[in-house]
Each structure stands twice: as C-alpha cells, then as structure tokens.
Amino acid sequence: MSRTNFDQLLEAGCHFGHLRRKWNPAMAPYIFMERNGIHIIDLHKTVAKIDEASEALKGIARSGKKILFVATKKQAKDVVAEKAASVNMPYVNERWAGGMLTNFPTIRKAVKKMTNIDKLMKDGTFSNLSKRELLQISRQRAKLEKNLGSISDLTRLPSALFVVDVMKEHIAVKEANRLGIPVFGIVDTNSDPKNIDYVIPANDDAKDSVEVILGACCEAIAEGLTERKAEKADEKANAEQSEVAPEAKPRRARKTEEASKAQKEASASE
C-alpha cells in the first residue's frame, strides 16, 4: 500500500522543478514535461520512489540503527527538526560541520565538551568565575548546542543519511559516499542524482513538498520502531519461558531415576 498518493504530492507542489536552463540532464528520466520554461517532475515516479525509500528506512529503523537527517536551507530546516525529532532520529539543520562523518571522533569530543560544561554548571564549579568568564563559557555552550545539540545522542556513525537538497548539502553527501553510508535524498531537476542511493525526485524548495515527503518517510520509520519494540517484547517473553523450562526438566529426570531405583530394589528383593 502506497504511503503517499499522486494528489497529495500535486497539492504540495512536489512536481515543480527548476527552470529548463538550470536543469541537470541526469534528471531526464524523472521529468514529465516542460511548461513555461519550467520542468515538471513525473509524480508517478516520485510516488514509487517514496515507497521504495520508505521500505528501506523502515528496515533500518527496525534493526535499531540511526538515520541522520540533513537540511540547512531555510524552507526545510524547521520541518526536518520536527519530523526527525518525532521519530527520535538525529538531525542537522543549522550548519554541516566539515568532517561530521569522516572525522566523527572529533565531533563526539565537542559533544562531550558540551555535556561537561552542563555538569560543571550544575555542581557549582563555575560559581567562583567572574561574570565575563561565565559569559564566555555560556556563549561557547550556546554555539555547541546550536550546531551539535541535535546529534548529542548519536554515539556512533549513522547507518543512513537523509538529505533535503543534495546540491546544498554536497559536503554531507560526499562524506557519506566516502564512508559507504547509503544516502536518501529529495532531488530536484537542477541536481545530480548520481551519488544518491535512494533518489526521490521532487521540489526541494517548497516547504509543503518537503513536509509531505518527510511525513511519509518518518511514518515508515515509526512503523519500523514499533515492530522492533514488538520483536523485543516477544524475545523477552521467550527468554523468560526458556528460563522456567529448564527447572522442570531436572524434576522429571529425578522422578525417572527414583522410579528406576524402586524397580531395581523390587527385583533384587524377589
């Protein structure tokens, strides 16, 4: 069953591409027609690609792995923050720090620094500092929070990257490609889909377009998380049952031993 339908995408303006003179010929398979010098995206293909991406994202979520969402453009940043947070996934919506993936240990150190500042503020270590020093530390903490706060729970490299506007986020895509991390991306007619593993051809400039696509993908992730929770509950129940079962086995074995002993004694007395 499809997570999105043609009408939803049409209403959100997902079909509007860029001006013909700005197009990337590699996007030709996804273009339906040209109208008033603007390329129109084939929404039938968009629906199929959303479903394909959604199934893959669901599988990643079900296996307990993380998907990192990236969108720093004004129209998409708030939508990405809201949708990613709703499924408890990390996101970057302020600035992509170079090396966020390829130099992950350094990024983790910066996150740790932020946590340490919080700890020292709570236990009163900073109470003897001057107002100026406190202000400097607070500013440093605010800067770290702005750029890295949304990935503070990301303790290891993500298993996938979801990018809105693959041209703007080309550094993130490049880093993911280098590390072999699969990339999901909303790809407009001016972009190159070559380095994107799961291409979703659609308008990446309109907020409504981004929202409807992310909504469908995050719904699939939520399903994957629910299934994982159910599987874990089943495993726990099975484990508890198997812990009870071994106790019953020795008891039966003892009864068999006692019965055979009694038989031997009876035949000996005869």
Structure description:
The structure is a single chain. With 270 residues, the chain is an alpha/beta fold. 55% of the residues lie in helices and 12% in strands. The chain is built from seven helices and eight strands; from the N terminus they run H-E-E-E-H-E-H-E-H-H-E-H-E-E-H. It has helices spanning 6-11, 43-62, 74-86, 104-122, 131-148, 170-179, 207-269, and strands at 16-19, 31-35, 38-41, 67-70, 91-92, 160-164, 183-187, 198-201. The protein has a five-stranded parallel beta sheet, sandwiched between helices. A three-stranded antiparallel beta sheet has the order 1-3-2. Helix 3 (74-86) links the parallel strand 4 and strand 5 (91-92). Helix 3 (74-86) packs parallel to helix 7 (207-269) and helix 4 (104-122) crosses helix 5. The radius of gyration is 28 Å and the shape is flat. The N and C termini lie far apart (77 Å). The relative contact order is 0.17. The model has no long low-confidence stretch (mean pLDDT 88).
